[in-house]
Amino acid sequence: MAAIAPHTDTQAELPRARGRQLRTVALLLLPGLLWLGIFFVVPLFTLAGTSTQTPSGSGIPGEFVQTFHLVNYWDTIGEYKEHFARSFFYSTLATLLCLAIGYPLAYLIALKAGRLRNLLLVLVVAPFFTSFVLRTLAWRQILSDDGTVVSTLKWLHLIPQDMAVTASAFAVVAGITYNFLPFMVLPLYSSLERIDPRLIEAGGDLYGNGFAVLRKVTFPLSMPGVVAGTLLTFIPASGDYVNAALLGNSRTTMVGNVVESRFFRVVDYPTAAVLSFVLMAIILVLVVLYVRRAGTEELV
């Protein structure tokens, strides 16, 4: 009997150890859960309630009553469908440009830079040390009609002489691409840096040229970084309003600009809430479809 007692004590200790472990995990998660609950879940439900309100009829601006008027969604989508299309077009185009620019840059830093790697990484993140608004305003000077860039393009006859680059869709997409490029480069670098160099060498040993190895070996292995980078770029770019406000015009307005205007200028809270909810829903659906289509095991 004495020989069995230690075994029995060990079995009794296991549930207590698991209980202590669960309490520790719960205590560690509690601050984050409280933060999400107070600053995400509660505002989300508040926004949902606001989206189904209607004017009170008192004539006081900003005074609404809860009527669960779901027709708000139909009316708002019908009125601002062009803004949604424009937002997703601009953000998709900017994401593709960021990928086209960022992948070679990340490849260079991760696999070819050598001792210059840290310096190049610092240069990639250096724009974050400057205000987002200031960086966008700088693009107004860069793309001004009498600036060096536009003057050179016109001198080379790459753009028409009477073309205005500022206050255009081109300027908006350029600003979005520039501002969100680091969000593409850093995940790509992280993914490329983890690739075993022997796999790339094996592709060359199998008589693959540089492009074939990149297409068949390097790019598939870096897909987690591609997916993460495109999501980190596309999601904030879809709701961005700073670039369209500072670099665009009335014909380049995005959904974010309408939300900002309805909340702070027109004081039409239900319409702004509907726009915010629809934008979140569309982005969520697109992200789920994209991640499942990409098929990366690390992200699904």
From TrEMBL:
Domain of life assignment: Bacteria
InterPro entries in the cross-refs: MetI-like, MetI-like_sf
Annotated ranges, domain ABC transmembrane type-1: 84-290
Membrane association type: Multi-pass membrane protein
Pfam families for the chain: BPD_transp_1
Protein localization: Cell membrane
Transmembrane segment boundaries: 25-48, 88-108, 120-143, 163-189, 272-291
Alphabetic keyword roster: Cell membrane, Membrane, Transmembrane, Transmembrane helix, Transport
Recorded family membership: Belongs to the binding-protein-dependent transport system permease family. CysTW subfamily.
Protein name: Spermidine/putrescine transport system permease protein
